[in-house]
Amino acid sequence: MPGNTFGTLFRITTWGESHGKGVGVVIDGCPPRMPLTEKMIQSMLDRRRPGKFPASTTRMEPDQAMILSGVFEGMTTGTPIMIMVKNKDAKSGAYSPYASLYRPGHGDFSYVAKYGIRDWRGGGRASARETVARVAAGAVAGAILENHGISVIAYTLELGGIRAETTDLALINQNMFMCPDRKAAEKMVLHVEKIKQQGDSLGGVVEIVASGVPSGLGNPVFDKLDAELAKAVMSIGAVKGVEIGAGFQAARMLGSQNNDPIVPDGFLSNNAGGVLAGISNGDKIVVRAAVKPIPSIAIEQKTINTERKPETICVKGRHDISAIPRINVVCEAMVSLVLADQLLQQKAIEKS
Fold this sequence. Notes:
Blueprint: E1 5-6, E2 11-16, E3 22-28, H1 38-48, E4 65-69, E5 71-72, E6 75-76, E7 81-86, H2 108-115, H3 131-146, E8 151-159, E9 162-163, H4 182-198, E10 204-211, H5 225-234, E11 239-244, H6 255-258, E12 262-263, E13 266-267, E14 275-276, E15 279-280, E16 285-291, E17 301-304, E18 310-313, H7 326-351
Antiparallel strand pairs: 1-2, 2-3, 3-7, 4-7, 5-6, 8-9, 8-10, 10-16, 11-16, 12-13, 14-15, 17-18
């Protein structure tokens, strides 16, 4: 099964299934002599841990990170780093009623079309549980970026059609939906409760901002920085759209409006989202991810069984109402992975 490895110089390979013994990641290319502890990784994993938010599944996973290799006395050794997180609260029996049914919105149908077999216990590799490994790797990438003065932050811009109108980053950790707008966050709480009672789910938009990114990262043509960022964020299961900078709004602008004027101190606007011609321009990198509603809902839907006969399905169990805000840190991790990889590539060029 290809497609489990991401990156060029800073490469990660994730492994494991939602209801297997655990999930994890192997990281290759991390520079040596860099401080790294399980506590550093844990702080990021705790931000996506289930059971903490009103829109979250009640699956209670401690998500304890274990570094199995690549670190000695709290320092990276330059060899592959393996991080494992055990699955503690998987209840596979809850999925047995759906073993012969294709759940609408899930990868059940397409996985069978490709492989002729699927792990019906929670979705296997298609489950959001796989993102634990991405977040663990993102913590390592974040440590590299921090050493170079680069920071990445993700927050909820929109949930269920309720959009933040102001951006106060100090508010992100002060509300349960990690929204930078207090009034919008309060509306989100009420809306989620309403949708939860209806047995339905919600989508939204996550905005990711990287600050301190130097100019010169990325490559022209096929390996553009914005192309790599789009691929990274789009590879997250629930993401169905990605914008860089002004994004689709740029299609509604005039050239005189979309261009970012340049002065000696930098750019007067940032419609480019920090990327010009596929290369960072030194401004903030701005990425937005459109997150679809969780497909497991308690409302009856039409489907077919594995014999392609018509059925109806009502998915019950421990499911999120929305991937937001747990997906926020996953988006942050993927952007961090791209920037760490691009930073190492640029340093290799500068040394040659």
